[in-house]
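Re: [help] complex structure
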Amino acid sequence: MVEPSRRRAIEDVASDLFRERGYSATSVRDIARALDIQGASLYAHVTSKADVLWAIVDRAATRFETATAAATDRAASSSPGDRAAELAALVRAHVEVIAADPGDAMVFVHEWRALDPTRRAAILLRRDAYEGRFRDMIQRGIGDGTFRLTDPSIAGAFVLTALNGIAAWYRPEGRLGVDRIADHYADLTLRALTADHD
Amino acid sequence: MVEPSRRRAIEDVASDLFRERGYSATSVRDIARALDIQGASLYAHVTSKADVLWAIVDRAATRFETATAAATDRAASSSPGDRAAELAALVRAHVEVIAADPGDAMVFVHEWRALDPTRRAAILLRRDAYEGRFRDMIQRGIGDGTFRLTDPSIAGAFVLTALNGIAAWYRPEGRLGVDRIADHYADLTLRALTADHD
DNA sequence: CCTACCGATCGGTAGG
DNA sequence: CCTACCGATCGGTAGG
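Output below.
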């Protein structure tokens, strides 16, 4: 028994299937089959397919929020006022959360559409707040001359969708490890935004 | 009768619904309802839901292929050897195709997973060839010193997913028109890739 | 393009 | 966690 809980194992398996086929193309029987149990047996551990989706989306959102908050705090204290270092830390943290669980990340990015209206509204608020961190940091960097003058909304969308794209193609056994990918993405992001110097 | 054909109207309505909810969360009755007809009546014009998906994916792929080929040809003849101008033209063409039909673009980017194995394999080949154009252009630009030394695969993925993200948020009535968005995206892309000069 | 209908599969429940 | 089963909905067909 390696799994901490059956409930968690169900969410993990569902996350991978939702990533590959999408929420509504995945049946509860598909999830059960991956665990070698009967479809109906799932309901001893979860109350509905919708609740499994919510659990995945919620934990993914929480991970993005906490990891990036910690990273920017660290950057702010180790190199205070350095907007480029702060943004690089934000980008790296985001990339690391995706690579740690690409299934969850993919579901968070794409499958929130399948949530019921109440939960969808709640997750959209959190997503907007999260994206706001990127926008705000770009805005501050423009203000102090670190980043060149540009549209923070467009630049934020450009960067965030580029980062989120990793969830679709990343494989743990791939050519590049998380660190190298994070290096490249932080570099490309800073290049796109940083003002020319000298 | 504004529609050139009923078949085309079905595809257009399906494209929007597939964009919003995904292919498998959209029923044939949903498509029919948007056209104010009965679900079964669709089958007077199409042979299956799967064929409607294929028609959308195929036409989207074709549009990306032809628009970017034309744009790079134009750039290559008006400013020969200018890799930056060529890449900018490629980016602009891609953005314009997305904005011209974000539904088709979204379906092309995300819903190809729902295709049957044969068609999925066929579209993946075309997608890989298409993405190869971006990679190759980056590679050539690195070769002649226009672009800085970097991983063309990673840089290509970064840029293409950033561009494709537009399909998810673009609205014709939005704050910025297609041209302004294309300006920003071409600029951000070139900044991310271009070697420092002087 | 409609009504009437088909078998298959869906998410989920009852009762062990 | 299983068997047996439920009503609803799915994509699609027959026959006008």
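The two ends of chain A are 60 Å apart (CA to CA).
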